[in-house]
Amino acid sequence: MNRGNSVRYYSSLLRKIILIIGDIICLYLATSIAMALELGNKQTDKIAFHLEFLPILVIMMFFMFNVYGLFSLIRKKLVDIFLNL
Questions:
Q1: E strands, 18-84, in order
Q2: What gap in Å lies between CA 1 and CA 72, rounded to an integer?
Q3: What is the pLDDT of residues 19-74, one digit of tens each?
């Protein structure tokens, strides 16, 4: 592999890692906000119980995103992304 291809590979890999981390953060935030809105701030023990299952949710997200090709860095039309979802 020459230097140009390796730089392109590592920048693509870095971009993919950043996007995956962003997806995980969005998943955690959305789940936390939904739990807080649904259960209220007074029931923090129930919120903590549900947040313990977030790692399983992240694993399921990886599996489903991979199955439907949403981890691909190829530019897609917005319609194609929504059809995959």
A1: none
A2: 22
A3: 888 888 988 888 888 887 887 767 777 777 777 888 888 888 888 877 777 666 66
The burial of 29, by beta-carbon neighbours within 10 Å (0-12 exposed, 13-18 middle, 19 or more buried), is given as: exposed
Which of 67, 74, 68, 55 is CA-nearest to residue 15?
74
Query: Are 27 and 61 a contacting pair, CB within 8 Å?
Result: yes
Beta strands in 1-68 (DSSP E): none
Nearest of 26, 27, 46 to residue 36 by alpha carbon = 46
Q: Nearest CA to 14 among 24, 2, 6, 26?
A: 6
Residue 76: give the domain boundaries. Answer: 3-84
> What is d(CA 38, CA 85) in angstroms, rounded to the nearest whole number?
25
Domain tally, the chain:
1
pTM over 0.70: no
